[in-house]
Amino acid sequence: MIVSVKKSTPKGTIPxxxxxxxxxxxVFIASLGKKEVxxxxxxxxxxxxxxxxxxxxxxxxxxERTDSTNETKIIxxxxxxxxxxxxxxxxxxxxxxxxxxxxxLAGVADGSVTLTGDESIQKRxxxxxLKTLNEMGAEAYSExxxxxxxxIVRGKIKQGNFSIDGGMSSQFISALLLSCPLLGGDSIIxxxxxxxxxxxxxxxxxxxxxxxxxxxxxxxxxxxxxxxxKSEVLVYSxxxxxxxxxxxxxxxxxxxxxxxxLTAGALxxxxxxxxxxxxxxxxxxxAIVEILEKAGADISxxxxxxxxxxxxxxxxxxxxxVWDAGETPDLxxxxxxxxxxxxxxxxxxxxxxxxFKETDRLKxxxxxxxxxxxxxxxxxxxxxxxxxxxxNEMKGTAVHGWNDHRIVMSLFIAGMMIGDxxxxxxxxxxxxxxxxxxxxxxxGAIFEKC
Length: 450
Hints:
The longest helix has 14 residues, at 405-418. By secondary structure, the chain is an alpha/beta fold. It has helices at 20-32, 46-57, 96-106, 127-135, 170-179, 198-210, 255-267, 288-294, 332-340, 361-371, 387-390, 405-418, 436-442; strands at residues 3-5, 11-15, 36-40, 61-66, 72-77, 90-91, 112-116, 139-142, 151-154, 161-165, 187-192, 216-223, 230-238, 249-250, 272-276, 298-302, 307-311, 322-324, 345-349, 375-379, 382-386, 398-399, 421-423, 447-449. Helix 3 (96-106) packs parallel to helix 5 and helix 5 (170-179) packs parallel to helix 6 (198-210).
């Protein structure tokens, strides 16, 4: 699908969509338990439906029900920590989170489990997770010998003391943290190097704790062999033989998806946007509020009532900032657009892991914003954007959405700023924000679907 976006000014109030990250974890954790669980305000997107279907294949009863108020809820009765071996391959679609969670869980099941996904998933490496699962006693490998899906896992993994590289994706760590409590004894997972996107692990720990799971996070000193210096290592201690009991759970609003609308409200002259359902949580992407504040936006957050208001009634240009994206990789496309339309220079750093998402998002944003007239430099781990040099060069044209929901939604905001921007592969928004176009129309976005 192609979307043609005209210059438009957003005004109005929109409820934040439910968090994709929390929905993934809540569905998975509820499936690991035994009692019936009701998940309220879930995100029903292509990615979360992949997790729901995968949990069904492992033996959970997962249903969608609509209540008397027309709200859809997910009702889950889990497999009590004893996943069965799926009778067919698990197809995760485009969902990296689903792939990683289910790959670790496959190590708990008996028999052989095959996991695959779409073309994008089959290009995303899983090297650290496969390596650690093999060390834990499973036979885990890539069918094409490239550490990408299709993956084969033959259990069973056993408890012990293991380490994993934390620099590529936090999803690998979350997957192990949620499967290790089901093992017969205690486990220790040490993180090699810096843990990127740690807030996503914090979300995992938050939901696991609500399910009664004990996981201790601490640090230990490690001696470097070469020069004898010491460094701190992040460690997770996980008792075995635990039982999951999540209970009924309300999914929080999603800051990653909200970032597009909030950025539109901050950038576009005359805009006034209010979003509800955004309460403080472990989501790293709540940093969008801090980012917009640093850029000079008129923004306020009523944390008690979960309401964020942002406007640009004075039609002012924001200013460029420097942002370390180590913990906020999903904000990089949004930040790229923010930088292209702000004065001065914007630097996005520590974002090399963003290259291993649905697509190489650093390359994608540099390529597409350049088509729109932005002066942008792609570095090994980030982007340097000269909003000052781009100011009089930005104009509408056809851009490629890279079949990536976050690329499409970010470029849509650019289209609202300058007009006459057409974006292909726009159907990919269903991955995380199925109602994106409908919600944008409600607040005044002018566009056509082709």
